[in-house]
Write a structure and sequence with these properties.
The complex is a heterodimer of chains A (217) and B (392).
Chain A lengths: L23 E2 L2 E2 L9 E10 L3 H9 L11 E6 L4 E7 L8 E12 L3 E9 L3 E9 L6 E10 L2 H10 L3 H18 L14 H10 L12
Chain B lengths: L1 E7 L2 E6 L11 E10 L3 H5 L10 E2 L3 E9 L11 E4 L2 E2 L5 H4 L13 H8 L5 E2 L16 E4 L7 E2 L6 H4 L5 H11 L7 E5 L3 H12 L4 E6 L2 H9 L3 E4 L7 H7 L8 E4 L10 H11 L8 H9 L5 E4 L12 H7 L2 E4 L8 H9 L11 E4 L3 H9 L8 E4 L3
Parallel strand pairs in B: 11-12, 11-14, 12-13, 14-15, 15-16, 17-18
Antiparallel strand pairs in B: 1-2, 1-4, 3-5, 3-9, 3-18, 5-6, 6-10, 7-8
Helix pairs in contact in B: 5-6
The chains are: A alpha+beta (217), B alpha/beta (392).
The complex binds zinc ion (2 copies).
The site of one zinc ion (ZN) has 7 residues of chain B, from loops.
C-alpha cells in the first residue's frame, strides 16, 4: 500500500469489546456500557426495511462512508482489513482535517462487523450487528461505538458542534434513510430570508451547522 | 422569488429570497399557483411552536405546476398540476408501509430536535419549524418538494385551484377526524371549533353516516357555515349557554356518541378553567390549554369516542382522566395520514359531493399576507380561510 500507517496507539483495544453490540444476551436485556475511565460509549439501533446482506455490504463498503457519515471527507482502503479515515473538524474552508487508521477485527457477512482504530488522531472501536426483525419485516441494525476522549471526540464536541454520541445516532439515521430510500433527507440548502443574529445563533445551538451528508458521491 | 418569512413572534414579512433548487434525487420544484394560511400557522405566528428561526419561509398548504423534477421522480413531469400534502413521506419505511404516513421515519432531517422535545420524531412538514424538518414552506412563488414520487396528487381535470387546494391539509385533516370518531350510521357527533378543519370534520361526519352533528364555536360566520352544512350550532359565548348542558339536552342526557376537538392548543374558553389555563401558559407552567379536551371528555357518552385533530404541542394539565377511564372512552388522534385520503377525497370533489372552496373568505397577494396574519389573529375581520395567489 502506498499509504503508510499512522502511529500505533499503545492502548488500543486488543479486541473491539469485552461485550458486543447485542441488546439481548441469554434472554436478558443488556443495557449499554457506562462511560468511565475516559471511554465514552453509545449504542443505537434502527429498524431498516432491507435485508441483512444488503445492509452489511453497504456498511462494509468503507470508501462510501462519506456519503452517509457526518464530516467524514474521505476513506481510503489501505489493505484487506484496513482503511484510512479523514474527518473535517469544522465547516471553514481551511478547517483542520484529522485522520486515523482503522482495522476490521471481525467480519461476518450479513451478521456483524467490528473495527477499531489502530493509529492516528482517534481512539475508537465499534461493532455493528444485523439481525432479522422479530416481525420478519426488515433488519434491526444495532451499532455500539466506543471513543476514548481524544482529538476525535473533542473535535466533534468543540469544533463540529455535535456531541460524539449524537454523531453516531445521526449517522445510523442517515444510513437507514439511504438504505430505505436511496437518499438522505436534507433541508439546509432550502431558501430562507435573512436569519439575523438570533436566527444564526439558534441554528448553531440546534446542531444545524453540521452539514447533512449528501447520500451520494 | 417572493416568499412570506417568519421574522420573529408576531412578525411576518414578504421578502425576496433565492429560488429553491433541486437537492435530492426524489425532489421536484413546484411553481405555486395557490397557497393558503392555515389555522395552525397562527401557532407559529404566536410563537407557540419552538425552533422557528428568523427568515423561515411559511406555508404548508399549496398546489401548483411541476417546474422541474429530480432524476428519480418518474411519475411527474414539467407542467403537471399537483396538490402537495403538508406531511412529507418517503414511502419506504415501516410506517409508510403501514400507511401511517405522518409517522414517516425518513423525512425529518432534524429528527434529533423532535426527539429531544418529544422522545420521537414524525414526518417532516413544510414550513413548520426546524424540529419538524426545517423545510421551506409554500407561501412563496416556488417550493422544493422532497419525495415528489410519493406525495403530490396529480390533478387531471379542469377543476379550479380553489376547489382542490384544501386537499393539501384541512379537508383530509377534517375527514380523518371524522373517520377517527368511529361514526356509526345514526350517531350524534359534537364538533368543537368550526374553523376550516371543524368545517370539513362536520361535512365528513355527515358523509360517514352521522344523523346529527352539533357544532360548537363563538364566531357567527363560522356557526353560519356549519348550519349551511346541516349542523345544529351551539354558541358558547352566549351568556346563558353551558356546552355540557346543551350537549345533554340535545342527546336525551346520553351525550354525543363521538366528540371531535378541532380546536387544539389555543382553545379559548370563557369558563374558569380557561382563565386558569391562560395564567399557567403565561407563566410557562404548561404549554397547552386543553379546555376543549376536558369538556369533550366530560361530554362524550359512556363508551364513546373522542377524536382529536387539533394540534397539541406539549403537556396537558388537569385532564379528567378518571372520567375518561370510568366511561371507557376511546381516544384517537394524531397528525393526518394525508396520503390515505387525498385521492378518495378528490373523487368526492370531482363527483360534486362537496365544494371545499365554500370556506374561503379572503383572497390576497403575498404582499398582503403579513397584514392578514395579524387581522386573522386579532379577529379583526370575519376570517374563515385566507387563500393567496403568489403571482397576483
Ligand atoms: Zn394546515
Ligand atoms: Zn417513510
Amino acid at each position: 500500500m502506498s499509504i503508510s500507517p499512522l502511529t500505533e496507539k499503545p492502548y488500543a483495544e486488543a479486541l473491539p469489546f469485552s461485550i458486543g453490540a447485542s441488546v439481548v444476551v441469554n434472554g436478558r436485556y443488556l443495557s449499554p456500557p457506562e462511560d468511565k475511565d475516559g471511554k465514552i460509549w453509545v449504542r443505537s439501533s434502527a429498524l431498516v426495511l432491507r435485508d441483512a446482506q444488503t445492509l452489511y455490504a453497504m456498511w462494509r463498503d468503507v470508501e462510501s462512508a462519506p456519503r452517509w457519515q457526518e464530516n467524514i471527507i474521505e476513506v481510503v482502503t489501505t489493505g484487506p482489513t484496513t482503511s484510512r479515515w479523514s474527518m473535517k473538524t469544522s465547516e471553514d474552508d481551511d478547517a483542520k482535517v484529522i485522520g486515523w487508521d482503522s482495522e476490521v477485527m471481525a467480519d461476518e457477512p450479513g451478521v456483524r462487523i467490528a473495527w477499531r482504530s489502530i493509529g492516528g488522531e482517534s481512539d475508537n472501536a465499534g461493532e455493528v450487528i444485523f439481525e432479522a426483525a422479530p416481525s420478519g419485516q426488515g433488519t434491526v441494525v444495532t451499532v455500539l461505538q466506543e471513543f476514548r476522549m481524544g482529538k476525535l471526540a473533542s473535535a466533534w464536541e468543540t469544533l463540529v458542534g455535535r456531541n460524539p454520541k449524537q454523531a453516531v445516532i445521526e449517522n445510523l439515521r442517515h444510513f437507514k434513510a439511504l438504505a430505505e430510500t436511496g437518499e438522505i433527507p436534507r433541508s439546509q440548502l432550502d431558501p430562507h430570508g435573512d436569519r439575523g443574529i438570533i436566527g444564526n445563533l439558534k441554528r448553531s445551538s440546534y446542531g444545524e451547522t453540521v452539514p447533512t451528508p449528501t447520500g451520494s458521491n | 422569488m417572493k416568499a412570506v418569512c417568519w421574522m420573529g413572534k408576531s412578525s411576518m414579512e414578504t421578502r425576496t429570497v433565492p429560488d429553491p433548487e433541486l437537492i435530492n434525487p426524489h425532489d421536484a420544484i413546484i411553481k405555486v399557483t395557490r397557497t393558503a394560511i392555515c389555522g395552525s400557522d397562527l401557532h407559529l405566528y404566536d410563537g407557540f411552536i419552538p425552533t422557528m428561526e428568523s427568515g423561515d419561509i411559511m406555508g404548508h398548504e399549496f398546489m401548483g405546476l411541476v417546474e422541474e423534477v429530480g432524476p428519480e421522480v418518474a411519475n411527474l413531469k414539467r407542467g403537471d398540476r399537483v396538490v402537495v400534502p403538508f406531511t412529507i413521506a418517503c414511502g419506504n419505511c415501516i410506517f409508510c408501509k403501514k400507511k401511517f404516513w405522518a409517522a414517516c421515519d425518513n423525512t425529518n432531517p432534524n429528527a434529533h430536535l423532535m426527539e429531544k422535545a418529544y422522545g420521537y420524531s414524525g414526518a417532516g412538514l413544510f414550513g413548520y419549524s426546524h424540529m419538524m424538518g426545517g423545510y421551506a414552506g409554500g407561501q412563496a412563488q416556488y417550493v422544493r418538494v422532497p419525495f415528489a414520487n410519493v406525495g403530490p396528487l396529480k390533478i387531471e381535470n379542469d377543476l379550479p385551484d380553489e376547489k382542490v387546494l384544501f386537499l393539501s391539509d384541512i379537508f383530509p385533516t377534517g375527514y380523518m377526524a371524522a373517520e377517527n370518531a368511529q361514526i356509526q350510521p345514526g350517531d350524534t357527533v359534537a364538533v368543537w371549533g368550526c374553523g376550516p378543519v371543524g368545517q370539513f370534520a362536520i361535512a365528513s361526519a355527515f358523509m360517514l353516516g352521522a344523523a346529527r352533528v352539533i357544532a360548537i364555536d363563538r364566531f357567527q360566520e363560522r356557526l353560519a357555515l356549519a348550519r349551511s352544512l346541516g349542523a345544529i350550532t351551539v354558541d358558547y359565548s352566549e351568556e346563558d349557554v353551558s356546552v355540557l348542558t346543551a350537549l345533554k339536552d340535545l342527546t336525551g342526557g346520553v351525550g354525543p356518541d363521538s366528540c371531535i376537538d378541532a380546536v387544539g392548543l389555543e382553545a379559548h374558553s370563557n369558563e374558569l378553567q380557561g382563565v386558569y389555563d391562560v395564567v399557567k401558559t403565561a407563566l410557562f407552567m404548561e404549554t397547552d390549554r386543553p379546555s376543549v379536551l376536558r369538556q369533550a371528555i366530560q361530554a362524550v357518552r359512556k363508551g364513546g369516542t373522542l377524536s382529536i385533530p387539533g394540534v397539541y404541542g406539549g403537556l396537558l394539565d388537569k385532564v379528567p382522566f378518571g372520567a375518561a377511564f370510568g366511561k371507557g372512552i376511546t381516544m384517537k388522534m394524531g397528525q393526518t395520514n394525508m396520503h390515505n385520503y387525498m385521492k378518495p377525497l378528490l373523487e368526492r370533489v370531482e363527483k360534486g359531493q362537496i365544494d371545499p372552496s365554500y370556506i374561503i373568505s379572503h383572497r390576497i397577494t403575498l404582499e398582503q399576507a403579513p397584514e392578514m396574519y395579524k387581522v386573522w389573529r386579532d379577529k379583526k375581520e370575519k376570517v374563515t380561510k385566507i387563500v393567496i395567489d403568489p403571482w397576483a
